[in-house]
């Protein structure tokens, strides 16, 4: 499954940290994430790891970011 069909003239972006990593796995090019306001480096590291093909690191950072996000909502 790919969020953007080949030849499409649009892009998909994730809107929450909960959908960021999984969105990139299916074709999203990035995200507009509120968590990036207070943890921009973490969000950049996650995307950079994904783009470099380091999926294990991207997955680790995704879990960490989602854990922080959940704690901030309490």
What structural class do helix, strand and pairing data support?
mainly alpha
Write down the overall mean pLDDT: 93
Q: What fraction of the residues are assigned to beta strands by DSSP?
A: 5-15%
Q: Share of helix among residues? A: 40-55%
Largest sheet: 2 strands, parallel
How many beta-strand segments?
2
End-to-end gap: 34 Å
Number of helices: 3
Low-pLDDT residue intervals, each spanning 5 or more residues? none
Overall geometry comes to globular
Describe what you observe in this structure:
The protein is mostly helical and 74 residues long. It is 53% helix and 5% strand. The protein has a two-stranded parallel sheet. The longest helix has 18 residues. It is globular, with a radius of gyration of 12 Å. 20% of the residues are buried. The mean pLDDT is 93.
Features:
74 residues, mainly alpha, two-stranded parallel sheet, 3 helices, 53% helix, globular
Q: Topology of this structure?
A:
Blueprint: E1 13-14, H1 17-25, E2 30-31, H2 40-51, H3 55-72
Parallel strand pairs: 1-2
Helix pairs in contact: 1-3, 2-3
Task: Describe the structure in brief.
It contains three helices and two strands, in the order E-H-E-H-H.
